[in-house]
Specification:
The protein is of the alpha/beta class and 237 residues long.
């Protein structure tokens, strides 16, 4: 039962990704061919590989991480805070810093990671990019040999499914129906690549990523029938 979990032991997270290269023509010929093959089912005859390249950020083989935002509760007595911070900049540094956070502060058996659709997207994406960047995968991300009940991951999408595995609910829809303040600001996921490569506005992306991390925590509180965070309880560090 999620009501019995200690909120202090959960690291909430969200990532933002973009195509690894700004445009299709920046890929070498072999990668262009591999992209063509990788996406042929999704594209069908509706898009050329080049036209479809703005979606490359959703595949770890063709995308990269530009921001990881994390949040965690600190509850002492009747004082509750939620601290949010972000790793951004060079991808290898982002991954190393996130790795250090897990190894130094969230490596014990009681510690859990939580995101929305994180089991299908965020966590595998991080692990794959760590391999590509030759960074050791921390124990909290390394699932090899672990039984399902030993995996230290929570997923608000999975919790909302209640076993209905064909069901998908976006974070935006879930916050709306649960009465959580909307996490979305002036951009959505489809615009992150443009904001990153064209506008070069990483601060806007960080704000967007942190809002999603806060929203995941709020959804988790709502699933436990607990009071939502108010602005004064949220601390950006």
């Amino acid at each position: 039962m999620i009501e019995k979990l200690n909120l202090n032991n959960i690291l909430f997270l969200d990532i933002e990704t973009v195509p690894e290269e700004e445009n299709f023509n920046s890929l070498d010929a072999e990668m262009q061919s591999l992209w063509d093959h990788k996406t042929q089912y999704q594209r069908k005859d509706d898009f050329t590989p080049e036209e479809f390249y703005d979606r490359a950020g959703i595949w770890a083989e063709f995308g990269k991480i530009i921001c990881i935002s994390v949040g965690y509760f600190t509850i002492k007595g009747d004082v509750r805070n939620f601290r949010v911070t972000s790793f951004f900049g060079d991808e290898k540094k982002i991954l190393k810093d996130f790795n250090n956070l897990l190894n130094n502060h969230f490596s014990q058996p009681q510690h859990l990671l939580c995101g929305h659709n994180a089991k299908e997207f965020d966590i595998p994406f991080i692990a794959r990019r760590m391999i590509i960047n030759q960074i050791a995968i921390p124990d909290k991300l390394n699932l090899f040999g672990k039984k399902p009940w030993e995996i230290p991951h929570l997923d608000t999408l999975e919790l909302w499914k209640f076993g209905d595995y064909k069901h998908f609910t976006s974070l935006k829809l879930l916050t709306k129906i649960l009465g959580v303040p909307s996490p979305k600001g002036d951009i959505d996921g489809s615009q992150v690549g443009h904001v990153y490569y064209v506008e070069k506005d990483i601060d806007r992306i960080i704000t967007y990523c942190e809002k999603d991390t806060i929203a995941v925590a709020q959804v988790f509180l709502r699933l436990r029938r607990e009071d939502l965070l108010i602005d004064d309880e949220i601390i950006h560090v």
